[in-house]
Amino acid sequence: MTSLDSNKHPVFWFSDGSLVLRAQSSLFRVHISQLCRKSTFFRDLFSLPQPAHPAETEGERMEGCPVLDLHDTPEDVANMVKVIYDGPHFTNNDRDDFVAVSGFLRMASKYLMEEAIRMKALEHLRLAWPSTLKGWDAREDVARAHELETGLLRGHRFPSPIAVINLAREIGADDLLPAAFYDLSRYSYAQIYEPHPGDPLHPDSSPSGSSLSHALSPADMQRLALGKETAQHAITALIQNMEYASPEPQRQHPRIHRHSRSRSATRSATLCVTPAACRKDLCELVELAKQHYLMDRERGCADPLYVAEELGQLKSAEFSDCAACATDLEAWAARERERLWKAIPDWFRLRR
Question: Does residue 59 have a pLDDT over 90?
Fold first, then answer.
């Protein structure tokens, strides 16, 4: 086997191709017509007027085809060519899938790929990095299920949020940033800047051979620090305000809480008949939450959305002596989670 043969891509070397793309030492023999169908850049490049005497200006050729050098990684070129020929078929937003999707999106932005294809790739990424609280809850359910099935930390289910932030910056997909920054803020600074082997943010946790970036820009490091601090303040305020979750004892409860993650959404509206006992019970729960999340720093202590959800379940209407107050607590938690979600872009200074 010659050195030329060893450098040919094992999949994307078509014997009837009309152009050789070279990325570092990897070679891709493709069809100019296919590139032009999907890319404005290539369409414009090959529509330029040709010299009157091509033999005098002709560059390097391989097996009769002109060679075009691309200053991209072979991995990214392969992902682009795969989408051009096979269409945008992505999988489950895990780490291997992200390598393919991010590689294509970088190339799509650089080479002005067809917008419809680019949007399909972005919509796929938004399933893991959503802009709605409902989408975030669905994503977290997937991560929890992965943790139960594999025993791995749930952070391994999706790609590193640092890589997502850097991709979003590179391709101008700012709507991915709030979820990515929020996910990253749940890690400690030691886990972010000095991860151990096996940690979700350790470079070795990314697929081998990938060219993903594992460092934030100085500006985004500042945004992360500010956001982490604000998130911690949000948890403190959330717990302190929990004692006001129940309305006045005389107030009736005409509305039924229908938050999808509530276990008591179908309970009938009732009145609190033991207000003094319920107030005492709620104060005890507040102290318990302070000890758990603020003093002991137990799991979830850096995740305001998780804390709010857990607080809402401390008085389950299925088992509580007062279903009315339990329902009120769940409804309060649902409102707080919506409020927190809407505030995330401000925490990380992402609004323009």
Answer: no
